[in-house]
Amino acid sequence: MVAEKTLDTLDLDLPGKFSGKVREGWPLNDGRRLLLTTDRLSVLDKVVGIVQYKGQILNQLAGWWFSHTEDIIDNHLLSLPDPNVALVKDCTPLPVEVIMRSRLTGSTSTSILPRYLAGERQLYGYTLPDDLTPHGLLPEFLLTPTTKEQDGGHDMPITSEEIVAKEIVSADVWEKVEKAAHLLFQRGVETAAAAGYVLADTKYEFGISPEGDVLLIDEIHTPDSSRYWLKSSLEERLAQGLEPESFDKEPIRLSFRAIGYSGDGPVPALDPVVWEQTSQRYITLYEGITGQRFVPGSVPLKERITKTLQPFMEPN
Ligand SMILES: Nc1ncnc2c1ncn2[C@@H]1O[C@H](COP(=O)(O)OP(=O)(O)OP(=O)(O)O)[C@@H](O)[C@H]1O
Ligand SMILES: [Mg+2]
Using one digit for the tens of pLDDT, what is the confidence trace for 211-236? Predict the structure, then answer.
């Protein structure tokens, strides 16, 4: 039998399993949670395929970024017991996602480029000038929150003022979140640039820990939660009217768009090469950012992870 080399899902002998589009989680009832990152890829608010090594790359890259940003804000990470698993503080996620942007870009409904091109200048409480160009620099880093919708609902844009006025998040917590998001993004942009990448935008999630602290949770600066472009080819490609060279989910979004798929109905097949290239690019980005070689975890994957997590399944 061919050893399975990708991870679609995992069942553990633990109660309370949570299944997101990409991650699966188990609360441990002691203030901790196991967070498994699968190889599933989601775009257009649904799972559309599997990318080899993606789960491990996301888990380990987020781990790297967490340790390189903990001077800015505490985060949920306790340890990485397995290449695909994080042991984290079990938090109550804030019901908003915080997107930070350095570039006028994006192709999804909450992105700013399509709205700007349609003539909108008032976006997320900011007023944008008329002379911006597609994928070009924004006048400042924008903080553009969205609501976090459950079960396939579409996240909706919301302003900081509304978040506080409607008491979706308390004013003092939101102040901490805004400050952290700006500093995290500044760090992300600078670190990515030093590695040869443009961090065009990214999404942060924050939560309240069992101790009542505001923590950075979920993932940070991964190619799932961010747009990363190759810096060296960017200016020339933009001058030619081409899309940036993306090391994230954007090529998958664009491939679907090219065949007219916008998320409704059954997911059409893409050329297998598109999936392989995505895997390769996630590896390239991981190695570029961390300066470390990517070493795939041992296979079969499910067997390995189940064995590693055995201690968490035994009654204590
Ligand atoms: N420390 C934590 N405590 C509690 N929940 C967490 C923690 N870290 C992350 N989560 C939650 O775990 C889930 C991760 O699942 P996943 O990344 O698959 O999310 P999703 O929102 O369904 O998909 P997508 O990322 O594609 O939008 C999210 O709902 C996130 O809020
Ligand atoms: Mg997520």
Answer: 999 999 999 999 999 999 999 999 99
The yes-or-no verdict on residue 237 having pLDDT over 60 is yes
CA distances in angstroms from 315 to 28, 45, 163, 310, 311, listed in the order given = 11, 37, 42, 10, 9
What's the CATH code, domain 18-91+271-313? Answer: 3.30.200.20
Classify 228 as helix, strand or coil: strand
Ligand nearest to the CA of 218: 1
Q: Quote the ligand 1 centre to 2 CA distance (angstroms).
A: 31
Q: List the domain boundaries for the chain.
A: 18-91+271-313, 93-239
pLDDT tier at 2, thresholds 50, 70, 90: low
Task: Give the CATH architecture of domain 93-239.
Answer: 2-Layer Sandwich (3.30)
DSSP, collapsed to helix, strand or coil, labels residue 178 as helix
What's the pLDDT tens digit per position in 48-97?
Answer: 999 999 999 999 999 999 999 999 999 999 999 999 999 999 999 999 99
pLDDT (mean) for 268-272: 96
Over range 103-112, report the average pLDDT.
85
Q: Which residue owns the Cα nearest ligand 1 atom 24? A: 21
Mean pLDDT for the chain overall: 95
43 in Cβ contact with 61 (< 8 Å): no
**20 CA from centroid of ligand 1 (Å):** 6
Give the amino acid at 129: P
Residues with CB under 6 A from ligand 1: 20-23, 25, 33, 35, 42, 76, 88-91, 93, 205, 207, 217-218
Q: Which three-class secondary structure state does DSSP give residue 256?
A: helix
For the CA of 22, the closest atom of ligand 1 is 18
Over 90: is that where the pLDDT of 124 sits?
no
Range 143-175 burial, b when 16+ CB lie within 10 A, else e = bbbbbbeeeeeebebbebeebbeeebbeeeebe
Distance of CA 92 from the midpoint of ligand 2 (Å): 14
Do the two domains 18-91+271-313 and 93-239 of this chain adopt the same fold? Answer: no
